[in-house]
Design a protein that fits this description.
Strand order of the largest sheet: 1-2-3-5-4
Largest sheet: 5 strands, antiparallel
Helix content: 55-70%
Distance between the termini: 30 Å
Structural class: alpha+beta
Strand content: 5-15%
Shape: elongated
Number of strands: 5
Number of domains: 2
Order of helices and strands: EEEHHHHEEHHHHHHH
Number of helices: 11
């Protein structure tokens, strides 16, 4: 997907504006804006150069996390260094500033919680249910959503064991199931529901979740019985 701008092209952190744009199905943030918001440096570019010299592993993997993208400025679109959310977290880890400490503590908390979830998957399921409940979903809906995740996981495991590896291949197969179920691919269904970047299944009704589960469970059984490759 190409880079696009929408009404949420700016986010504000501690009174500082951080420009962002939607690219390849995720948000990308202007690196200079992040550095400016988290440091007292008057020259973000110079600070970034010093940061790269100070953090050699970051510099070595720079091209993997930093992409040059066209950003709207007062002088028109300009190519600027941008990072996605994951890249932003990596940059923040390399900033020795008191302003960055809240982010670092949050990352440590998230990392600890992730380890807990790996050791005990029930914790992850409990947290997932709590998040959906806090958003106002009913217990019945949450139960169907959780069951749907388990059914989907079984299907993707079967696909993986039979040679499906690339994300595009999973998308193609998923689109076939969705088209057979609802007469629309997931992308078309999102457009039909007026969604942009939200999770489609989080916006399904109880019946839609049931139909999706049935078709994915049936696909899993057919895949096993036919030993599809």
């Amino acid at each position: 997907m190409d880079s696009v701008d929408d009404g949420s092209a700016l986010v504000v952190f501690q009174g500082k504006e951080i420009r962002r744009l939607w690219h390849s199905d995720e948000w990308w943030f202007v690196l200079e804006d992040i550095v400016s918001a988290l440091t007292d440096s008057k020259d973000s570019k110079q600070y970034i150069n010093k940061m790269r010299k100070r953090d050699e592993p970051l510099s070595e993997g720079w091209v993997q996390i930093v992409h040059t993208l066209p950003v709207d400025t007062s002088g028109g679109k300009q190519k600027m260094n941008c990072v996605n959310t994951r890249g932003a977290f990596r940059i923040i880890q390399s900033i020795p500033s008191p302003k960055a400490e809240p982010f670092k503590r949050w990352l440590a908390k998230v990392g600890y919680e992730r380890i807990q979830e790996i050791e005990d998957p029930e914790i992850a399921m409990k947290r997932m249910r709590e998040i959906y409940a806090s958003k106002g979903y009913s217990e019945d809906w949450i139960e169907k959503r959780a069951r749907g995740i388990a059914v989907r996981d079984e299907l993707t495991k079967e696909w993986s064991q039979r040679g499906i590896q690339k994300a595009k291949e999973y998308s193609i197969l998923t689109a076939e199931i969705s088209d057979a179920t609802f007469g629309m691919t997931p992308r078309e269904y999102m457009k039909y529901k007026g969604l942009k970047r939200e999770n489609l299944r989080d916006h399904m009704t109880d019946l839609e979740l049931i139909f999706t589960m049935l078709d994915e469970a049936a696909t899993t059984e057919i895949t096993r019985k036919k030993d599809a490759q």
